[in-house]
Amino acid sequence: MPRFPRLALRLSCLLAIAPACVVTDGDGDDDDGADSSASADDTNAQPQGESGATQAGGAADGNGGGEALPRAGTWRYEETAGATNDCSFIAQPSNGFGMFEITTTGAGTFEITPGDTTAPFVCSAGGGSFACDERLTGTIDEVPGYDVVGNILVSVEGTVISSTSIVGQQLGRIDCVGSDCAAASAALGVAFPCEFAVPFTGTAS
User: Fold this and answer.
1) Who wins on pLDDT, 177 or 14?
2) What residue segments make up the domains of the chain, in order of their start?
3) Which of 33, 100, 163, 194 could form a disulfide with 68 if both were Cys (CB 3.0 to 4.6 A apart)?
4) Which secondary-structure segment (H or E) carries 188?
C-alpha cells in the first residue's frame, strides 16, 4: 500500500469569505497569513448555537419578521468558537478576521466580495436566513508520485440578525479525485468526502 506523508494544508485562501488568509496548525499557532485574534474568549464575538438563535429571534421583531437583507458596504468578518474538522490530515482551516464587501444585487440576493483577490459570489436571503452556493476554493495535490487531488469546496449559510449583523458557518468538504483515493483514505484514516465547519460573525462597518 502506498505510504502518504501527513499533509499540512497551506492554501492561500481556503474559505469562501477570505479577508485574512490564515491556517492554524495543530498547536494553535498561525501559519503564513494575517494575524488571527478571534477566539472563544473574544468578548466582541457573537457565538453560534443557542445564543446566536436567541439574538436572531430578538432581532426579527425589529426587522419585519427577520426579512432584512445585509446592507451594502464594508463588513468585518470574525470567527467564533465551535469549529469542527473531520479532515484530520489538514490543519484547522481559518480566516481569522478581516474585512469584506457586500453589494445588493436584487430582491433577496446579495454579493460578497472577499477581502483578497478571489472572485465575488452571490448569496440569497429570505425568512431571516441566508445561503451562498458551494464553490471550489482550492485543491490539495501534495503527494508527489500518486494520482490524488483533493478538491476543496465551501458553501456559506447563516442567519440575518439585522441589516448590520449576520452569524453563519462556512461549510467545507474535500472530495478526493484520482486512482489512488482508496489508498489515501486508508492511509490517512479519513473517509472522503471529509467535512469541516467554521462559525463566524459579520458586522457592518
Assistant:
1) 177
2) 22-38+47-204
3) 163
4) helix 181-188
